[in-house]
């Protein structure tokens, strides 16, 4: 599990690490030196060489600029032609500046160098976790020139202009190909608009680990998700592996029921029971499922329900949903069930058993307040208000529990933006919940597996939802293979 730490949490850890300095366990300036060395190492690995490489370092007036200057000094010492552009010359990090000069680097004022758009590498050390709002005009102009040039762009800690905590981008920001972040991954690098600005995220360990508070937000790795996908053991039978109940689809629209039931079957369910008016379609597609044309109570015993995809929102649908929500079982509330729950939140609010709501932005808004630029915060608010787990779909799907624990999914792909993929996610989620694991982490595991399946299916070209169902067993197999990571192309 990868912890996502806010700027305040990182700063608090830095203070505790500084106390270590006083106790002489860590040398003063060690954190910045470790950060700069890690940053230079990632750059060198990407460039493949240093000698003669043209490097421009954009330097703000804080420690982020300090990191960039020390990294520039490393590169200059290895023969790179480094120019530092000081956006706030009076406040540039003195020791960093001295190191750069000693290593043979050049320094210019904020007007910038002539060759910015010809640089092989541009380091964005304008602002890091101390940044507020969009970039000021001078920095914004330089960032724009650098971003349009052919060179490699690397953000120091955080792409400047991106809110490290939320991923919100409130004005100009610097979109980069790589972000080298220090001590802990910040949420804003992996969620919301910030995700698109950060490119590939590399985590450099600077020794903050022992000082960091336990994070409230996480990213799951394949290894974490594998724990939810263990193969059956010798003593297992179809009941002990989890029995999922599905209420979805209708006689006119059986597709949602077929996809949802198929996804549950293909994920890991010992048994899937279907109750509803799309029974003929489900029987034809999945002879393995047990189908009733009656109500949920007629389906037999289940361990978790999935309610909503294609079920409609009329009085009959409402009474079926109410019946499922009145049980003491985990329930996934998806699609049409979300519309009904938004009309009547009391259906969800009073439950003791876990409820997982799976809205996209428009469905979320029906609960009263739209999703804002802080997607994790938005999901946390609704989760707390309803006492339910909220899985907010997006490029990077967010899961929040009522106590504020959150997860950001690392495996999303835009290929999943096609009809029926949500029905598949609901089925996967039902199958995993039926084993009784904690709801929020289970929802995050479902989003992870769904995304991985999308990535796998998209390798062969544009995907449709049925491809996900077909590729699920193979994805489960791959996720169970050890040694697979969570961050996009992480070098953590
Ligand atoms: N906290 C830590 O543990 C460590 C921090 N380090 C570095 O230090 C950084 C934090 O340093 P600081 O606290 O000095 O803060 P920053 O360097 O992130 O930013 C502060 C400076 O940016 C200016 N600024 C704020 N918003 C701006 C905007 N929108 N446009 C232009 N300028 C803006 C401020 O006026 C101030 O001069 C981290 O991101 C990281 O790079 C590292 O050296 C390693 C250790
Ligand atoms: K930066």
TrEMBL record:
Keywords: ATP-binding, Isomerase, Lyase, Metal-binding, Multifunctional enzyme, NAD, NADP, Nucleotide-binding, Potassium. Catalyzes the epimerization of the S- and R-forms of NAD(P)HX, a damaged form of NAD(P)H that is a result of enzymatic or heat-dependent hydration. This is a prerequisite for the S-specific NAD(P)H-hydrate dehydratase to allow the repair of both epimers of NAD(P)HX. AMP binds at residues 393-397, 422. Homotetramer. This is Bifunctional NAD(P)H-hydrate repair enzyme. The gene is nnrD. The keyword Nucleotide-binding applies. Its EC number is 4.2.1.136, 5.1.99.6. Belongs to the NnrD/CARKD family. In the C-terminal section; belongs to the NnrD/CARKD family. Transmembrane segments: none annotated. Residues 221-479 form the YjeF C-terminal domain. Residues 10-214 form the YjeF N-terminal domain.
